[in-house]
TrEMBL record:
Keywords: ATP-binding, Kinase, Manganese, Nucleotide-binding, Serine/threonine-protein kinase, Transferase. This is non-specific serine/threonine protein kinase. One of its GO terms (molecular function) is protein serine/threonine kinase activity. It comes from Anisodus tanguticus. Residues 430-468 have a biased composition (Low complexity). Its EC number is 2.7.11.1. It holds the Pfam family Pkinase. Residues 302-326 form the NAF domain.
Amino acid sequence: MANKGSILMERYELGRLLGQGTFAKVYYARNIRTGQGVAIKVIDKEKVLRVGLMNQIKREISVMRLVRHPNIVHLYEVMATKTKIYFAMEYAKGGELFNKVAKGKLKEDVARKYFQQLINAVDFCHSRGVYHRDLKPENLLLDENENLKISDFGLSALVESKHQDGLLHTTCGTPAYVAPEVISRKGYDGAKADIWSCGVVLFVLLAGYLPFQDSNLMEMYRKIGKAEFKCPSWFPPEARRLLPRMLDPNPSTRITLAKIRGSSWFKRGISIPSNSTIVDETSTDLRNTKDKQEMAVAAAAAWIPKLNAFDIISLYSKFDLSKLFEEPCLKKEAKFTSWKPASAIISKLEDIAKRLKLKVSKRDEGLLRFEDMKEGKKGTLCIDVEIFEVVEAFHLVEVKKSNGDTLEYQQILNEGLRPGLQDIVWTWQDDQQPQQSQDEQPNNQLQQQQRLDNQQQLPEQQQQQQQLKGSPVH
């Protein structure tokens, strides 16, 4: 393994081969510093350049930076040499869900658990403007605790990929799991197509075989187009009612993720709020009682994700590795830091949203979504605000446009959010000096420690960045 690149070898000790495809191999590896087990995806740069798949690799990097969820494989870092690209990812010890299904149908409770985790993760992806487009048991992995992890975002699409008609037009996915509107090549809604694929996955989990099967590909496409399938006798009645609504050949009448999550079969066995949604937007109790509202804010704050060192580096512009892989574009996001508790940040954001007449429609693991009440130039303006805990009592907040017109977003950001947040913001990422109020000055000892840490860490970070800049991905 000595030829695998000095950058990689400095950080990881490579082990056995886990799998391989045409353009990449995946190895088990161990982080030398922490001892953590990871999966290293090694991509042959020359091969992907030769067949024109580099944009797919760039998209996968961009997407995996956007979607951080307990049921999605986590991308720790990306490294590159002149000939290779390396993804250091979360290691899913349990392997592919496909291996379980290949042995036969699953018990109802087991199938429901995997389905719940799949829907929660897909819902989170859609809230970030990401559509997977290749959901199947081979791309669903299991960790050591039998929790599902979505992987392989190589075929995923972003909101920005939509044409002027608001639809996606690239035909992709695996034939048996692909939605009929994708096959027709007339344009499709990425969210609706993912829901169809989730329906096929659910059928496979409960049946042990595919709903649409035929040795003739065109005949299989015909069955998919007309949704010709039959549920086996052992399917529970509630699942029998849910599946035809997911496998509805008409995307405009196909069931939504919200209604799937509201179905009686899906909700069975859930005794606590799901990872994906801490506070349900349809809950009326939380709207009527101030105490319950405060409890809801506190509950949401408890789910704030913590950042590791690579997360912190990648979120700051000076160390943003995405510039190696992404084209520059109009500013659609802003970041600020605060010494206020997460609950105070959430309360402040909700107050500002109310004042600006923005609807707070979701709260997912530190993620708030604001929606404009009126239609804008490019549809409804949606702004995602995600809160991360850097260290105890110190938070980084990312404000990002997920839909709508960028100029409208900039106006709300600069004329509404920035002025309204000034009493809780320590510093905006692009500002030169921190905006400290009298009651939130960090103590001198902490500041001195931060300066010492920065002095120790900067040379190593600059070296990492320089190594990557010396061998950019083309």
